[in-house]
ABC transporter substrate-binding protein
Amino acid sequence: MQAEFGARARIDGAGRRRRPGRVSALAGVALLAAALTGCGLTIPADPDGSLERARGGELRIGIAAEPGMSTDAHPPEGPLPELGADFAESIDAAPVWELGGEETLVGMLESGDIDLALGHFTPETPWTERAAISRPFAGSAGGVDGADAELVALMPLGENALLSAFEGYIDGRGLAR
């Protein structure tokens, strides 16, 4: 009977054909998951450890001044700096501010000089190949042209734990769009 289905197929007591390969594959997946968990691997992860470094320390936030959203004072004031400071507090970090134009801030994200960039970055931002983009969130009322803005935050590429924490923050505050 085994020859009919090949060397790997078996017939159980109820006459059903069983494939031990599926059981072995599932056991392999379970074993791999247990091994990765034992190694302390977490998903999402930050290859450069941005979120872990910021917790209990400093979150380096770049701000692009925009009328109605952020001043160019040091420290900056306005709805975006308030958002950044509140996010930093949510991860037990103190905000450290860097002011700059959008291209300067993207360069600072790439070089690891800042962890988060806030400004008038919209979902249509051209920086998608140089920075990770958060899900859209509600900008300030009274922002550019006095209207609500749909904004995104920029973070270093690959720093997915930090991105996930930020998106959890905007979800929790009812800001996500």
Residues 20-38 form the longest helix (19 residues). The first strand starts at residue 10 and ends at 11. DSSP finds six helices and nine strands in the chain.
